[in-house]
Design a protein that fits this description.
Elements lengths: L4 H7 L7 H14 L8 E4 L7 H7 L5 E5 L2 H13 L8 E4 L12 E6 L8 H14 E11 L7 E3 L2 E3 L4 H10 L2 E8 L10 H4 L2 E7 L1
Parallel strand pairs: 1-2, 1-4, 2-3, 4-5
Antiparallel strand pairs: 5-9, 6-7, 8-9
């Protein structure tokens, strides 16, 4: 079956049939964690704004920052933004190979990385955590889902699929002045994809240590 233009865009960030579920999950989770319209929000690996569109709609203008490594996905995200009629919300959409290349003069109340840390090599993860440590507000929180355990590395669209121990994240976060809390499996927060490897991923809450 031929995919529509929107379905092709959706498939750039995962299975098209799970796109709506994953969009709904993100905004519902973030609101449950206290996200409010006045907060400043950093979306690491924003992709085509699958999760970003409802967050942009919810936040005050200019309070959303999205960072993406792939320029072609940012092109699609701008189309998604235009089609949603949200250009007036003035989101900041930035392209960078990793967070160390960014110069952002803003601290964030919420930092979000949905299905992103699981695709980062250790060195890129370290630089990301350093950036978060420098830009997270004192009462802010960084939420990210991760694969916990020790398995052989996989591959998805040219990116690694990485499994790490919780102790590894504790250690790496501590180097950037951050502390980790394990909030449990994604399925405990309403993520139901019927793919056990995804639903059993852990959600981490990372704060200033």
């Amino acid at each position: 079956m031929m995919l529509t233009r929107k379905e092709r865009r959706h498939a750039m960030v995962g299975p098209a049939e799970l796109w709506k579920m994953k969009r709904d999950f993100q905004i519902q989770f973030l609101k449950a964690m206290g996200l409010a319209p006045e907060h400043y929000f950093l979306d690491i690996g924003c992709g085509t704004l699958r999760g970003g569109i409802p967050v942009i709609a919810y936040l005050e203008a200019g309070h959303y920052y999205g960072v993406e490594v792939r320029a072609e996905l940012l092109d699609e995200s701008r189309k998604e933004l235009r089609e949603a009629g949200l250009e007036g919300k003035k989101p900041n959409l930035l392209q960078a190979a990793d967070m160390s290349q960014l110069a952002i003069d803003q601290n964030f109340d919420y930092v979000w990385a949905f299905s992103v840390l699981i695709h980062m090599r250790d060195d890129i993860l370290g630089r990301t955590l350093k950036f978060v440590g420098q830009h997270l507000s004192e009462e802010g929180a960084f939420y990210a889902n991760v694969n916990i355990g020790e398995r052989d590395e996989g591959n998805w669209q040219g990116f690694p699929i990485v499994w790490r121990t919780l102790e590894f994240y504790d250690r790496e976060c501590a180097r950037s002045g951050l502390a980790v809390t394990d909030l449990g499996a994604l399925k405990d927060h309403g993520h139901v994809s019927k793919i056990e490897s995804q639903d059993s991923q852990r959600m981490l809450r990372i704060t200033k240590g």
